[in-house]
Design brief:
The radius of gyration is 18 Å and the shape is globular. It is mainly alpha-helical. The protein has 8 helices and no strands. Helix 1 runs parallel beside helix 7. The N terminus is likely disordered.
C-alpha cells in the first residue's frame, strides 16, 4: 500500500527543480551560518562531531557554546520533522509541504534573530546564538525531509556521498561501461551538487553585501515550493 505522505512520482523537470533548489538552499544556509556566526556548521554534522571531539580531548580548544549546541539543535530539527511526518501519516495527508513550512518558520527565525543581533561583533550574544540554533534546527528539518519524503532525489545537504557517486558514475561513463541507469543516476546527482556549490558562493557574496537579510533567498525558495502544485502521480 502506498504511503500518502510519500512524494508522488514526478516529472523529470520537477525532480530537477526540487533537487536543484533544495541543494542550492542547503549550501546557501550552511555557508551563511559559517560566515556570519564564527564558523558555525548548521548542516555539517561531521564538523560538529569534530568540534565536540576536540573539546573533549583538549579543554584549551573548547569551541564556543553556540557551536556545541548546534548539534543538539540539528537533532531537534530532525525530530520535529519526523514527528510532523508521523502526524501527517496518521491523518492521511501529504507531508511535503508541511515540511517546507516547518523549514520556512525556522529559517525566518534564523533571519530575524540574526538581523536583530547585527552587528554580531566578536562573540555570540543571546540573539546571535538563537539565530544559529534556529539555523541548525532548520537544516536538521531539511535533512530529515530529504530522507523521509524526497527519496526520489539525491540527498540535498550531504554532498560527500553525492560527489563520490557522481565521480564513480562519471568514470564509468568515460570508460564506456555506463548503462541507462548509470547515465540517469549521473544526472540525478549532478544537479544538486552543482546547485549546492552555487548556493555556497551566492551566500558568501550576499551576506557580505546585505547581512542576514540575505536569508530571503532560501525563504523565497521555500515559498515557491509552497505555492507550486505537486505534480500528479504518473
Amino acid at each position: 500500500m502506498t504511503t500518502l505522505t510519500s512524494t508522488p512520482m514526478t516529472t523529470p523537470q520537477f525532480q530537477r527543480l526540487q533537487g536543484s533548489t533544495m541543494g542550492f538552499m542547503a549550501g546557501y544556509v550552511d555557508t551563511l551560518g559559517f560566515i556570519a556566526l564564527f564558523g558555525l556548521f548548521t548542516a555539517h554534522v561531521t564538523g560538529n562531531f569534530v568540534l565536540i571531539a576536540v573539546s573533549l580531548a583538549d579543554p584549551a580548544q573548547t569551541p564556543s557554546l553556540l557551536k556545541l549546541l548546534a548539534f543538539p539543535a540539528f537533532i531537534l530539527g530532525v525530530a520535529a520533522a519526523r514527528l510532523l511526518v508521523v502526524r501527517c501519516e496518521r491523518r492521511g495527508t501529504p507531508a511535503v509541504k508541511p515540511s517546507y513550512l516547518l523549514q520556512l518558520v525556522l529559517l525566518l527565525g534564523f533571519m530575524v534573530c540574526g538581523m536583530l543581533a547585527e552587528p554580531v561583533g566578536d562573540s555570540a550574544g543571546p540573539l546571535a546564538m538563537a539565530a544559529g540554533l534556529l539555523g541548525a534546527a532548520a537544516m536538521g528539518a531539511h535533512s530529515a525531509a530529504s530522507k523521509l519524503l524526497l527519496t526520489h532525489l539525491a540527498p540535498t545537504s550531504m554532498m560527500t556521498g553525492n560527489v563520490t557517486q557522481l565521480v564513480i558514475d562519471t568514470v564509468d561513463r568515460l570508460r564506456g561501461a555506463a548503462d541507462a541507469a548509470t547515465r540517469a543516476r549521473c544526472a540525478k546527482f549532478f544537479w544538486p551538487v552543482l546547485a549546492f556549490a552555487l548556493g555556497c558562493a551566492a551566500a558568501a557574496f550576499a551576506y557580505l553585501a546585505v547581512g542576514f537579510v540575505a536569508l530571503m533567498a532560501p525563504v523565497a525558495i521555500l515559498c515557491l515550493h509552497l505555492c507550486l502544485p505537486e505534480p500528479a502521480a504518473a
